[in-house]
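Troubleshooting entry. The earlier prediction with magnesium ion gave an output that would not parse, so I re-checked the input for stray whitespace and re-submitted. Clean input:
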Amino acid sequence: MLLQLEGLTKRFPGGVTALDGVSVDLVAGEHLGLVGESGCGKTTLARIVMGLVIPDQGRVLFEGRELVSAKERRGLFCRKARMVFQDPFSSLDPRFTVRAILREALALEPRMRLGEELGRMREVLGLVRLPPDILARYPHEFSGGERQRIAIARALMSQPSLLVLDEVLSSLDVLVQQDILTVLEEIPRRTGVTYLFIAHNLRTVRRLSRRVAVMRRGVIVEYGGCEDLFSSAVHPYTQALFKAAINYEVSA
Amino acid sequence: MPMETPRGETGLAWQRFMKDRAAVVALWILGIFYAVAILADVAAPYTLKDESREHPYCPPTAVHFFAPDGRFAGAHVRGVQMTYDHFRRRIYNETADIYPLRFFGRGETYRFLGAFPADRHIITVDAPGRIYLLGADSRGRDVFSRIIHGARVSLTIGLFGVLISFSIGLLVGGIAGYFGGRTDHVLMRLCEMVMMVPGFYLLLALRAAVPDSLDSLQVYAAIIIILSFIGWAGLARVIRGMCLSLKERDYVLAARTMGLSDLQIIVRHILPHTLSYSLAAVTLAVPGYILGESALSLIGLGIQDPYASWGNMLAEAMSIVRIQFAPWILWPAFFIGITVLCFNAAGDALRDAWDPLLKGRGEGA
Ligand SMILES: Nc1ncnc2c1ncn2[C@@H]1O[C@H](COP(=O)(O)OP(=O)(O)OP(=O)(O)O)[C@@H](O)[C@H]1O
Ligand SMILES: [Mg+2]
């Protein structure tokens, strides 16, 4: 079991319950899609997984071990689990070149020789289909889609086994979304990484993952194989989501 | 966004800065001042220890090209003869003696940059001739030379002071803003305590705490430390405010998930983004330190004779009568003024150069 979330609960000051007892399991090689409307707590969940937010209750287990302190996380988790953020315009430091950005992802890796490091950079840029000659350039010289690819490349630098993708497509236009989806489809085949793929519609989730969890107001209301849910969704919210996805496919 | 050369924000801001004429001129002037200060021994006609008791308050020496008999004699100065008028006021009259200006000629010996002995000066005249380009003070010392030597003290005290106090301010502000909570609370109360005391009184109080029996280098270091102690709090508060919002940026979160330490994140991803503000603030703060040193030295608590600083040179100009008969002893004030103006112009331009970036950030570009 790659990742286990057990009874995660998070309330923010002000009385918002972002998560209310969320438990999900993630098996290596079986990508999990997490769907839900805006504000249902998806980002909060991702941040808890990554240790950026401390949950009020519940546990996060990575490869069977619970991660409590920051030090424990740094040991293995920080290298083996990476996150790509929603907004590619704010997830890259504007003062860093692509090369420095990618290099930073190796902060916890054993020191590499220069050639090795460059090789790794070329490799991950290849995975996201960016030319290797962009290393000296700065984020402001790239489009949103390109930046998102750089962010994905950065997340792949340490050869992680878990990749948390938090609505990585939602700030991009439709054509660019397709490109990045294609890239994302390929990556697991070549690296063996497992996704926790967060989105707010089922359509994109279905292309990447066979397992889906549907979340609503901080609670997981449906969880199962994509095709099973398709035929036997119980929750009206899930049914509505499927309807939306099908309509889209018909009209598109 | 196609571009000929890859440039970061810093490069773009620098381009904008260079478009500001006043700032570029200011930067050049400061550059020249600092270069002269570094090369003070060569640039000044006389050393710090030089004095000539026969020439108290000698007015600025005129540079002539023609000898008294009308024949061309090259750039030279004349000898001077001091007499008293019937009010017992000093009168200087030029004699017919000719002392040609020597460029890079031999003069008094000194240790170049404190290391190897040398005796060349950009401009000198042979003894017993004297050259007082900006006049002489009460002991017949060359004001021009002393301004150049004093620049070493006055110009560097500002830089070192700012360097220290802003390092403290950046770090304290960065830590308070990044960690928040109790750390923040304690550090900010500390800042407020420092800020509450009016600067000049704090300066005097701290100076009083330093023993009088220090040599000039120690006094110099003491002044820097005292001035830094006053300056850091204001910056710390502003930096803290900026950090509060900067630490929520996704690239900071990303760095955290990648296992960078808090200190690494503060230094790499947070403080550099306050640079726009702090660089301008630093530049705008330097004049405060220069004036602080001047004020201390003026009232005799700073750099002591025979060492020169622009402040202690002005101590002589505290009597209106002396200013009336020897207005040239006010020259240090002129240089303090120019320096302060230049730093202000450069600081303003720096701030303006960064501003569009601050506005544009977040929407891309
Ligand atoms: N730091 C915070 N302080 C207070 N409330 C917060 C904080 N972060 C999130 N929330 C609240 O928690 C709830 C869940 O937010 P979250 O960002 O997890 O939603 P989301 O599912 O990612 O939404 P979206 O699809 O818009 O990204 C929201 O109501 C939000 O307002
Ligand atoms: Mg979100």
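This one parsed fine. The longest strand of chain A covers residues 16-26.
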